[in-house]
Design goal:
This protein has 11 helices and 17 strands. It starts with a helix and ends in an 8-residue tail after the last strand.
């Protein structure tokens, strides 16, 4: 038996015991199940009320268990950022997957074909004729028909076709290949999600959706069916619901939330989700006068945002600082004393998606009780 197996057995033995939340090996990735379930239900209600299909992005959670809960609440499927994530979720039994990044290269094309054999409803995105030709040839050789979306650059110049004529030309190439089927378009503005202030976000979304609308119009005028118009995220849902360009939305972070979203969304409607994701750390040294040291440092959090924030009201919320790969510092409360070795501190991550990617399991808790240990099957599957 490996060390990991011993640790997992020890953790599972804690399930259902009162107080077991505070007996976990640290640093521990925690999901407050009550808050998580409220978030899942709230987004499902919002999507239904807006007449939008909900296709949550699994790049946030990378977990088959969580994806199944989202589907049970009404989601039509889930998105995956990379092919590796989709492979991991398909292996765990998930279907109707949308890979939102282009597939490029002989190796990944062959993997996409293998995935399509498992998931006949798989959808891929394309933004260049070379991708179309490679996927068409591979699908024809395998006797398959692949569903593809044309990725449209609506804001970032990261991926996607930039103009309606480019989209129409690409759609023509897809139509000429019997092994491909045009399923629609995708337009995602990642940089919009964290714009501070609802009015400024709405302006940015409106500009991008005008570009996407022009592409959809030209495709339909050219005789192409565009049944699916997908995109959007947690920070832009209200704008997307109002503008009514999308008929399918891809929010991800709403299930967990993080400091980046808190700072950007504030009290806006899109920010009305509870904080359900936390990292629990343990005090491992109390010798310094002004701070204590905990066992969660640079390796425990994504660092592309504000520092982790402490939930314990005894501490200043911004009292954490990175103290190395394995350690963090926490400024002592006013008065300076009363913090014991082994004491637990829970922190809100700066950015939930890449923080999750650092871990292999979630600890699901209700109150102070551990209720489940959930595998993160697609963690570190960014290839």
């Amino acid at each position: 038996m490996t060390v990991d197996e011993v640790t997992m057995d020890q953790v599972r033995a804690l399930i259902g015991r009162p107080g077991s939340r505070y007996q976990l090996p640290t640093p521990a990735l925690i999901v407050d199940v009550d808050a998580f379930e409220c978030n899942v239900a709230r987004m499902a209600r919002r999507a239904k009320a807006a007449g939008l299909a909900l296709r949550p992005h699994s790049k946030t959670h990378k977990s088959a268990t969580i994806a199944r809960r989202q589907i049970a609440a009404g989601a039509v499927g889930v998105c995956c950022a990379k092919l590796g994530e989709a492979e991991a979720l398909a292996k765990a039994g998930l279907r109707k997957l949308l890979v939102t990044s282009p597939v490029v290269g002989d190796d990944t094309t062959l993997r996409a074909i293998a995935l399509a054999r498992i998931d006949p409803d798989l959808m891929l995105v394309v933004d260049h004729e070379q991708q179309v030709e490679a996927l068409a040839a591979a699908a024809a050789s395998a006797g398959l028909t692949l569903s593809v979306l044309i990725d449209v650059d609506v804001a970032m110049a990261r991926t996607g076709v930039a103009t309606p004529p480019a989209a129409v030309a690409l759609a023509g190439r897809i139509a000429a290949r019997p092994s491909l089927r045009l399923a629609g378009v995708q337009g995602y503005g990642g940089i919009w999600q964290h714009i501070v202030g609802e009015s400024e976000r709405r302006k940015a979304v409106a500009t991008g959706m005008t570009r996407l609308s022009a592409v959809v119009y030209e495709l339909r005028e050219s005789g192409h069916r565009v049944p699916l118009v997908t995109g959007g995220g947690t920070g832009t849902f209200a704008a997307d619901a109002t503008l009514k360009v999308l008929n399918d939305v891809q929010p991800g972070s709403y299930i967990f939330m993080d400091n980046q979203y808190r700072d950007a969304l504030g009290q806006d409607e899109d920010g009305g989700f509870q904080q359900s994701l936390l990292v629990q750390a343990r005090v491992v040294s109390i010798n310094a006068e002004k701070w204590v040291t905990v066992d969660a440092g640079l390796k425990a959090f994504a660092t592309d945002g504000p520092v982790p924030r402490i939930t314990d009201p005894r501490f200043a919320s911004d009292g954490y600082f990175y103290y190395g790969d394995e350690h963090g510092g926490v400024m002592r409360p006013s008065g300076g004393n009363g913090i014991a070795l082994g004491e637990r501190v829970e922190l809100i991550p700066p950015h939930c998606d890449p923080t999750v990617d650092r871990y292999s399991i979630y600890h699901f808790v209700r109150g102070d009780t551990l209720v489940d240990v959930v595998e993160i099957e697609a963690a570190r599957r960014s290839q």
